[in-house]
Task: structure prediction
Amino acid sequence: MTDTFRNLDRIESGYTVFEKDQVLTPGQLNGVSSYLDDQERLSRVALLGVGIGCGLWPLLQGNRVRLSHGVGTTTDGDVLFLPGATFYDRYKLYDTSAPKYPQFYRGEEMILAYELVREGESDSRALALSGFETREGIAPGTLAAVLYVESCLHDEDLCTGTDCDNRGKDWVHATKLLLVEPKSAAALAGALDTPDRAARTPLEPVVIARPILQGALAAEADLAAVYRKACDAIHKALVTALGTLYKPCKWFLQDIAPADPAPRWQKSLIEIRGKVPDRGVQYYYDFLKDVAETYNAFRDALFGDTAVCCPDLNAFPKHLVLGSLDTAQRAAVGRTGFHPSPMVSERVEQRVRARFLIRKLDALVSTFAIPGGGDIRITPSVFENRSLEERAIPFYYTVTEQVPIYRAWSYKLSQRGMERYNYSYNADRYAAEGAAKAPLEAQVGAFEFFRIEGHVGRSVGQVMDALQKQIKGNNLPIDLVALSLGQPPTKPPFPWRNQGLYPLRDLLRADLAAQLDDAGRFGAKFVEQVKAAGTAVTDADNNGVPVLGTAQTKTELMAGHVKAAMAKVLRDDYDSGSNWQDDVTKLTQTAAEMNEALSPVTKKEFVTPLDTVISGHPARWLTWVDILIKDAEVDAARRSELPGFLAEHPGLEHYAGVLRGGTFVLVYDATGTVVADLMLPYQCCEPKAAPPKPPKLVPPIRPDILFEKPIRLVPFPDKFRFEKFRDDFVKDMTKDIEVKTSYFNAFKDSIGIIVGAKGGGGFVQPGGGLVQSGQLTADPLLDLHVADTTWKTQKVDTLRTQLLNPGLDEAKRTTLEKQLETAETELGTAILTTTEFVATSGIDIKPGSDGARVMSTTSAALAKVSNINALADIEKGLMSLGNRTATEPEMKTMIGNVLTGRGIR
Result:
């Protein structure tokens, strides 16, 4: 049994140079041929690549096998080329009678293999594929195809003892399609060491654990515990992953790392882990993220890099594994891949980057240190959706000449010799160049993230001031918030919400102060007025109550309450809990007592400052706004603590900086020291500064008449004289209102008009004056309406007069008030009835006419109505009547004048 010949087992390194008339030997000629053949094969294998270049897909279709067109190269340099699809319908056993191919043997035993026969090719040993499973007991779809080049020397010479026709030997390169079992195919696939293979196994990605902020988080230790849990998970994953990195990659890393660096890295990680304090745990978390991202980036750089420099010539010297006949059972490991030469591979640059990342891993682990001190700085950077090397170098990597972190940070910049262009907090330590020297003075549009460093361990007020100065000074789109761990301080370093309430409260404070000042001024003026009145008003006129003594006593009390209240209301550090309300309440009570005590001898011309105090509007409003602000401050205090703020903004997370347009959150402890930082990707808070101090509002101009003339002293009759006055008034009024005719007597009970004697009498107009019967209009019915309106007007006036009696008891006063309300309602009905009669009867309403006089009387009567419900009914009725008389402009105008004149509209 002959062996399969392999051309590159012995590579010819030279050949004979022929000379003129030289006798050539077979060895010389074959040497040239072998040299050229070896060089051609090496060009394919070493400079282009080995494996299946494209196509060559086997497929079982019914009772035959289809092999698609394609091309591939073995590691012996054989080119297997099929220009079109080839079909096979028969098979035969491929056994030890064939030339021996070591790859088909496991020791002395040959693997099970079947050779497929092309359609139309003559072969007496071949059997139809249709009976393959019955004969062999194997389903053909479970087998894998192998394209094999059977290379051997064939000698067809016929030699005898007396003669030998020496015609030479023939190289036979027969391409055969074999079927083998899947396990044999996997062994024959000839996996070469490549970065891609290393990335797939055994290297596994490191999952970066994420700290989830939950729970009370009332102390620095609580927050640190959350981050330590995530750090422990990352640390464990890194120690395992780094331990598996070197072995599968040693063949292309050995020149830069002669020994496995993993033990040294793992030792450093363990030492770092044991030294991290609570206040540095976020830096430690960021560091572990950097290491994990670099490791993952290294692994990612290996994918797709199947290039092989100087492939193993024994990998698949005469065969290519094509994969399973059943597409559902194909796997990447069951087919020979293509391994290009680094000269033609597009991914070879990634291998160079992967080697760079190994150096970077070493630099990260070697230079990490939790920083202390330093300036507070903002550095433009990019967010985590971009690779680590595109971001600014964090300030927790020390800059040393032994391990210059800036030279190991960015592959792109290092390839260009621009390592000093890396942005970093520590850029000044490595003599940064370009925009890295002063990053905030250069264009920042390409940077969507800003690293903020150097603030941990400082007082929150100092940090807020420093950052605000940089943000405003450099026009940076960043918002700032400070949150406390545990109870916030009495005066947080950031403002409360609901800023609009503070200016409103300041206005109400100023208003109340002005009101209090008016009350004080009025009291002093009133005492002067009482003294000036002398004996014109006596204590007897005031039911025996001392007029001057009462005025002086009450005024002095009010002045004390005014002074006490104003001192609390106007102080710069106004405190809603200063109980100014007690002083205002005492002032209000004193003012009411003085009004009540001196009411028999005083007459009000208009509202006094004391009445304004008694009404209490600014005091009530200021109290309510104080409550609103207090509630807002309590709510803001809850939000100023980390748990409360987190409940409202669950996206809070640490990134060692802030996104453009986002919110950078400082976390401080009970001492006011910043212990951590977090970020929101959006602007969350309204104000940027504490509420301003209230302005010094100019007091309103208040003319002296408001303090000197709102009330005057008058001798007022006692109760007996008032009752006598009232009785005489009613008696005289009744005598004047006598009804003249029996017609009016018939309506006396229903409309309340008292008809006088035949010889005379009349009724009083609302404006005063007696109108004789028959004198007002020429229409008796219109006179009746006027009389009804006039009487009801007088009834309202009479009830109001009785209510002026200070001696009325509460029950009598209540009865009279109810009667007055009813009387005003009845008067409103009369006004509407009279107006409607004039509008619908075609009565002339031109100036000087009866209708004009009647409407004037009606308008005067309307002025007597003060009840809001009665006025609303009158307005509704008059407007409805005006709409119905829209076609009569004069009447509509007259009704409008009545409404406007009364002030309803």
